[in-house]
Design goal:
Elements: H1 6-21, E1 30-38, E2 42-49, E3 58-63, H2 66-74, H3 76-90, E4 95-97, H4 101-105, H5 107-119, E5 124-129, E6 132-138, H6 140-146, H7 149-170, E7 175-177, H8 178-183, H9 185-188, H10 194-197, E8 206-211, E9 214-219, H11 230-238, H12 276-287, H13 305-320, E10 326-328, H14 329-333, H15 336-339, H16 345-351, E11 356-359, E12 366-369, E13 373-374, E14 377-378, H17 383-392, H18 406-409
Helix pairs in contact: 3-5, 7-17
GO molecular function: RNA binding
InterPro entries: PORR_domain, PORR_fam
Protein name: Protein WHAT'S THIS FACTOR 1 homolog, chloroplastic
């Protein structure tokens, strides 16, 4: 896409002026500008490299995946419903006065909550009025479904412990600042009180120690059986690791996939048409052996081809440890020092757009693991996500976020 509206051009010029006033400058290496020019079917990513002349920035087409963009829109109403449910259940009498709602969610969000309360009487029951304060509580049907949350939390605990251990094993020092765990606690599916209810419960695995005045979560014991990536587990399950061995010539398919224990699952968008040279280079990359993401990154030269492919494996595994197989780009960048991620992380993600997808929908850009989704639907849901889907299905919503059989079970 090479044609932009005058409005977009004006906004970009204004942004450039503001950046100069704020002291931003282009580094001596290269800068990938996170400016995505959106169109109906694709985005144009502007990459500015250092040059002595006044050449224009190079532009590359970044094809949009509408189904994954849609995920961000589909989560808005369910998020408000679940937030209200948590607020109501947090009160002793399991109800909240409507006048106190603003104290819980703020002035702006209050109106969204009130709209949801009015729209979904199957979930929220409103009582009072005239001389008595108006209050909101869950309907009897919603209360019955909400009672399943405790069971979902019990089923989640071993999953959370395992994923938290694997996250610490990915890091170079087997430790992460607690403030960074807090940054992704929702993505990991951790309960709000995990620092009191979960970590002290497993002293054989975790400890919290002070390092230079900052609290760190430490891994207490290494478990080699956990050092298997989600990618390797899936290949073993599907039996694909048996293909593409030495002495066996298997031509790469046009979709970029290759039967090899070193290959990643590739999902290119419908509008992407790779040429022969691209596929040949991709075949070499897919066949290239690389160190496990669970080996310490300090052991490798970051400029080496195998080490660069290992970074892709680290990002793949990091997303696999989240319950919805996605994180914001800000959250991923936060782990740069712990995982020794490249400085130009966004460029790495865009380069491997068959594995990862970046959407600008929502407040912040979000990175998806493509293989985890079928259209807009997350393929594998953990117990807490299945519970949440069951509760939100009380609203009668039939979007692809939820399984079709959930409503039939309510």
């Amino acid at each position: 896409m090479h044609v932009h509206t005058s409005c977009s051009t004006y906004c970009l010029k204004s942004l450039a002026i503001m950046m100069r006033f704020k002291g931003f400058f282009v580094s001596n290496l290269a800068v990938l500008e996170s400016i995505l020019f959106q169109n109906s079917g694709r985005m144009c990513v502007q990459i500015r490299l250092k040059s002595s002349g006044g050449s224009k920035p190079k532009k590359k087409i970044y094809h949009r995946v509408h189904e994954l963009d849609k995920v961000m829109d589909l989560q808005k109403k369910p998020a408000v419903i679940l937030q209200l449910k948590d607020i109501i259940q947090s009160h002793k009498n399991k109800c909240i006065l409507l006048r106190d709602l603003e104290k819980e969610v703020g002035f702006v969000q209050k109106w969204n909550c009130m709209a949801v309360i009015e729209k979904y009487p199957t979930i929220f029951h409103v009582s009072g009025g005239n001389r008595t304060p108006v209050s909101v509580q869950l309907t009897e049907k919603a209360q019955r479904v909400a009672a399943d949350e405790d069971e979902a939390k019990i089923l989640m605990e071993p999953i959370l412990v395992k994923n938290l251990r694997k996250l610490l094993m990915l890091t170079v020092d087997c430790r992460v600042p607690l403030e960074k765990i807090e940054l992704i606690e929702n993505e990991l599916g951790l309960p709000i009180d995990y620092k009191k209810s979960l970590i002290p419960k497993y002293p054989e695995f975790f400890s919290v120690k002070d390092v230079n005045g900052k609290a760190y979560l430490h891994l207490e014991s290494w478990d080699s059986s956990l050092g298997v990536t989600a990618r390797e587990e899936k290949l073993t399950h599907e039996g694909e690791s048996k293909g593409g061995g030495k002495g066996e010539r298997v031509k790469i398919s046009k979709d970029g996939n290759y039967p090899s224990p070193n290959a990643f699952r590739i999902y290119y968008p419908a509008g992407f048409r790779p040429n022969t040279d691209f596929l040949e280079n991709l075949e070499r990359w897919q066949k290239l052996e690389f160190p496990s993401p669970y080996l310490n990154a300090r052991r490798f030269d970051q400029a080496d081809r195998m080490a660069r492919k290992r970074v892709v494996g680290v990002l793949h595994e990091l997303l696999s440890l989240t319950i919805e197989k996605r994180m914001t780009s800000v959250q991923m960048n936060a782990f740069q020092s712990e995982l020794l991620l490249p400085a130009r992380l966004l460029l790495c993600l865009i380069k491997h757009h068959g594995i990862f997808y970046i959407t600008n929908k929502g407040v912040r850009s979000t990175v998806f693991l493509k293989e985890a989704y079928d259209g807009s639907n997350l393929i594998e849901k953990c117990p807490i996500l299945r519970y949440k889907a069951k509760f939100v299905a009380l609203s009668g919503r039939l979007d692809s976020t939820f399984s079709d059989d959930i409503r039939q079970k309510i």
